[in-house]
Amino acid sequence: MGLRSLAAELLPAALHSLQRAAPSHGRDAPGEASSFAALADKLGYLSKADAKQVREAYKFADEAHLGQFRADGLPYITHPIAVAGLVADWKLDVQALMAALLHDTMEDQGITKVQLVEKFGMPTAELVDGLTKLDKLQFSTREQGQAESFRKMLLAMARDVRVILVKLADRLHNMRTLHALDAERARRIARETLEIYAPIAHRLGLNRIYHELQELAFELLCPWRHRTLAKAVQRAGGTRRDIVERVRKDVERAFARQKMKVQVSGREKTVFSIYAKMRDKHTGFAAVSDVFGFRIVVPTTTDCYIALGLLHQLYKPVPGRFKDYIAIPKVNGYQSLHTTLVSPLGTPVEFQIRTAAMHAVAETGIAAHWLYKNGSDTASAAADAQRLSAIWLQSLLEIQDETRDSVEFLDHVKIDLHPDAVYVFTPMNKILALPRGATPVDFAYAIHSDVGQHMVAAQINGEPVSPHTELRSGDVVEIVTAPGARPNPAWLSAARTGRARSKIRHFLKNMEADESRALGEKMLTQALRAEGLALPGDDPADTQAAALWQQLTRWSGNRNRGELLTDIGLGRKIANIVAKRLAQMMGERGIRPDPLVLTLGRYGSDEQMPAQGLVFVDGSEGASVQFASCCRPIPGDQITGYLGRGEGLIVHTADCPSGRRLFERDRERWMRVEWADELARPFETAVHVLVRNGKGVLAQVATAISAAEADITHIAMDQEPASENVELRVLVSVRDRVHLADVLRALRRVPVVQRVWRHRPG
Question: Which of 115, 130, 339, 396 has the fewest CB atoms within 10 Å, i.e. is most exposed?
Answer without folding.
Answer: 115
